[in-house]
Amino acid sequence: MDDGPRQRILEATYACVARWGLSKTTVEDAAREAGLSRATVYRYFPGGRDELIDAVVSWQYVLFFVRLYEEVHGATSLEEVLDRGLAFARRSLQEHEVLQKMLETEPEVLMPKLTIESNRTVGLIAGFLVPYLHEHGMADGVEIHEAADFLARMILSYIASPGHWDLGDPEQVATLVRTELLAGVVAEPGPAAP
Amino acid sequence: MNAAPLELIQGPPAVDRRDRLDRTERVARVIGEPAGSATGARVRVIDGALSCIARQGVAKITLDDVARAARCSRATVYRLFPGGKDAVLGAVVDTEVSRFFSALAVRMGAATNLEDVLVAGMTEAATRVTEHPALGYLRACEPELVLSQLAFARMDEVLSLTCAFTTPFLGRWLDQAEARRVAEWAARIVVSYLACPAEGVDLTDARQVRRLVRMFVLPGVRALRVPPRDARGAPTAGGPGRGAERSLQSNRARLTTKGEAS
Questions:
Q1: Hey, what CATH topology would domain A1-46 get?
Q2: Does residue A177 contact residue A185 with C-beta atoms inside 8 Å?
Q3: Tell me, which fold does domain A56-181 have in CATH?
């Protein structure tokens, strides 16, 4: 199957969700917005509305992490990955108008979907961090995959709910990275970038 | 340990949101409620509602179910909770949250050093959540109710509530700001492993929690105690500045499990 229409349907559905919310968006809305027939939408998403909404959430979720990856993949150290990644991720979430609107109006629809994604994401972030941890050198007695898993779940926690941390402040991010994230994980957390 | 509830609330919350302050205050009030006949009747209704939720969830229960489980009339339930089902459910949440933090207080209050207080608090929290019958039903059958509380702004409220009730227990070994930071951090760790379980990590097992605390948390607590300027500015080879080094050493002394004044 050609991937063009699928992407077009996702984008159209996203536009509908942005306008009306997750629970009010129908297959008809998405088809109309995409300029396709209802039958075509069903051909790409045989599960109908539920499959379509899940696909849109997954797509936006993956897109977020692709951008995060682009932001940090040029970093030369573990500290830089975390400094840049935390600040960027938090800013992106705050500025994501559709996400913020969904969280405001229908968290009970959105959250279970995000939770399913987050289980997968812990593995992805952990996998991404392993080479940086390897390069950096681990603290005594700390197993690299266990540490990567711990870091990944902490990162998700901080970017979704920073608590008392202000991730818009580079100095606070640097402190967070070198204490709650890395102090027990690596041999010697390095200084913040100038 | 019996609660001196309002004293448990220390430090202003990070964000000034009135609804969260209300929850903290309401929970503190529930903890401090003197046992009386009116309270007894309320508690029977609340416990009746809890047993209903454990069997059939939140969406389907009616006040008749609650009244039956509490062995009282529907009219009595209404007299005690004029707001009906929503009022009962709100009271259930406040009561269970207050019971949760009271149980944590008992465990954390008995600890004699920082490592133990963290292990006790985290293990008790994980165990209470895991073994809670009503919460168990909801996690399995109405997960959206539970999950929507555990991320983004509502999770910030959970963190803030946890800080309000657990910071004082960490304050025996850490100063106020540090205690708040560590309380929030420990809450994050527990929520993360409960909401998104990791293979082979079971936080209801105190030995596993102790391992996690020793490996990841205590080193972070030590690092937090170094003034950020020194920690960031100093080259890794030379280590932190002399002042920071001194403070690090005294921290290590304070943080070790042995040699703690009992």
A1: Arc Repressor Mutant, subunit A (1.10.10)
A2: no
A3: Tetracycline Repressor; domain 2 (1.10.357)
* Residues of chain B numbered 183-202 and touching chain A (CB < 8 Å): 184-185, 188-189, 191-193, 195-196, 198
Instruction: Provide the 3-class DSSP secondary structure of residue B15.
Output: coil
| Domain-located, residue B7 | no
Residue A176: is it exposed, middle or buried by C-beta count within 10 angstroms (0-12/13-18/19+)? buried
- B132 domain-assigned: yes
Across the interface, whether the CB atoms of A108 and B148 are under 8 A apart is answered: yes
CB–CB contact B145 A108 (8 Å): yes
Domain that holds residue B151: 12-225
Task: Give B-chain residues touching A22 at CB under 8 angstroms.
Answer: none
CA distance B202 to chain A (A): 13
For residue A111, with 0-12 CB atoms within 10 Å meaning exposed, 13-18 middle and 19 or more buried, which class applies? buried
Residue B188 pLDDT level (bands cut at 50, 70, 90): very high
Both structure tokens of B11 = 């430090």
pLDDT digits (tens, 9 = 90+) for B107-154: 999 999 999 999 999 999 999 999 999 999 999 999 888 888 887 888
Residues of chain A with CATH 1.10.357: 56-181
Token duo for residue B130: 């895991």
C-beta separation of B218 from B114 below 8 A: yes
Are the beta carbons of B148 and A104 closer than 8 angstroms? no
Q: Say what the pLDDT of residue B35 is.
A: 67
Q: What is the DSSP string of B56-77?
A: HTTTS--HHHHHHHHTS-HHHH
ipTM score: 0.90
Q: Quick check: A118 and A153 in contact, CB under 8 A?
A: no
Is position B199 within any domain? yes
Task: Give the gap in angstroms from C-alpha A167 to the nearest C-alpha of chain B.
Answer: 13
Amino acid type, B64: D
Q: What pTM does this model have?
A: 0.83
